Fold this sequence. Notes:
By secondary structure, the chain is an alpha/beta fold. It has helices spanning 14-23, 66-76, 87-94, 151-156, 205-217; strands spanning 2-7, 27-32, 43-46, 81-85, 101-103, 111-119, 134-141, 145-147, 160-164, 175-179, 185-188.
Amino acid sequence: MKAGIIVFPGTNCDRDAEFALKMAGFDVEYIWHDFENIKKYNLVFIPGGFSYGDYLRAGALAKFSPVMKEVERYVEEDRGLVLGICNGFQILTEAGLLKGALTKNKTLKFICKDVDVKVINKETPFAKHIKKESLTIPIAHAEGNYYIEDYDYLKENNLIAFEYVDNPNGSIGNIAGIYNEKFNVLGMMPHPERNSLKTLGNGDGLEILLSIRRALENE
């Protein structure tokens, strides 16, 4: 299984992502933001950080990078799975690959702590092999307050991936992560790569990455 990690100017979670993906059994390569062609990857990982310094708003400039046009084709052609974490989630919403938007936290402050999230839809590659009903995963964001006008659409179509047990940022419906309609894209604010070992917490984050790898192997 091969994973590609997209790196933008300002990305700072790429090394964490590499470590966690290797722990989950992936071969890993980096993809620079101005590449216009993505190789044969089973998983494309868009990590956290501050792409382009979060100018205008988080993820707003990154969506114009050449690599994002290729990510759009990757998704449309069902070449593999896309996982966007924190700033990666923000980029996916700005690019229109996921519905809704990420706004300022209700506290208007940066939040960095462990949170518990419930696994809502387990019928996808990202979650079908997760054994637990809830996971403890770190968050670290200032713009993690998820909003969408048509919240019922997400619920009716099972597009909600994770919900916060105790909502830290004001997200509508306690949403911590969502899928696209084809269930080949997941965006989430919590950082599973930062809890991929028990020495980093309890290792819950690895459950998501292992689920992805096992689902891809069984396709």
